[in-house]
Amino acid sequence: MSKEERPYHCPDCGFCRVGGAENFRHCHDCGMCIDKSLFREHNCKVGKYMSNCPVCQEDLFSSRSASHEMPCGHAIHWHCFRDLAAHDSRCPVCKKTAETHERMLPTWNAMAMGIALQPVPPDLAKAVTIVCNDCEKSEENRAWHFLGVQCRHCQSFNTVVERIAMVGPQAHEFLMVADPHPLHLEAQQQQAQQQQQQTNQRRYRRI
Ligand SMILES: [Zn+2]
Ligand SMILES: [Zn+2]
Ligand SMILES: [Zn+2]
Ligand SMILES: [Zn+2]
Ligand SMILES: [Zn+2]
């Protein structure tokens, strides 16, 4: 049995939990042992843990296993959270990102990079309305991408397409202005610079 899985007795909970005593601290308001690393920021709510784990449905308070609070405020077993994180980074209850945005940022930046390197061919272009699961804001006229659409408000890729407004080459043309792909944006800027240089040259010639 690893150190992490060794049971410890919490006198305030009144029974033994698994997870290593050094990793947890009992909160008297929540009436529950909380992850030490999250203790300072956790949202205290009486009765928060009077619920079932959304993964295995076991009652969280009476469970011997340690609980974890996700940024959305929903509670889950620590071991169920780790299993979940291996294949989905969203809370099973509310679909918000189950990790902090700071921890997700490298992943999201990598996705944005992937999008920057792979423009969607005009035939597959779609202008869509997205809703962000994290900040709940919606945005119209965004360029769909098979890797996902990044929320402009909170940087999250945890967004869903709510409506498809336009498809194909027509959408491609439209998005060149509404939500240009980084490569198109670069091309547009170069074009604008060239035009500016040409007008400057013309001006000089006139002088
Ligand atoms: Zn406790
Ligand atoms: Zn608390
Ligand atoms: Zn569970
Ligand atoms: Zn949640
Ligand atoms: Zn957002």
TrEMBL record:
CDD domains, per database record: RING-H2_Pirh2-like (cd16464)
Residue ranges constituting the RING-type domain according to the UniProt record: 53-95
Annotated Gene3D superfamilies: 2.20.28.10, Zinc/RING finger domain, C3HC4 (zinc finger)
Superkingdom of source: Eukaryota
Keyword field contains Cell membrane: no
Disordered: annotated span: 186-207
GO BP term, example: protein ubiquitination
Sequence ranges of Low complexity compositional bias: 187-198
GO MF annotations in UniProt: ubiquitin protein ligase activity; zinc ion binding
Stretches assigned to the CTCHY-type domain: 1-52
PROSITE patterns: ZF_CTCHY, ZF_RING_2
GO cellular component: nucleus
Keyword list, A-Z: Metal-binding, Zinc, Zinc-finger
Entry annotated with the keyword Chaperone: no
Protein name in UniProt: RING-type domain-containing protein
Native organism taxonomy: Eukaryota, Sar, Stramenopiles, Ochrophyta, Bacillariophyta
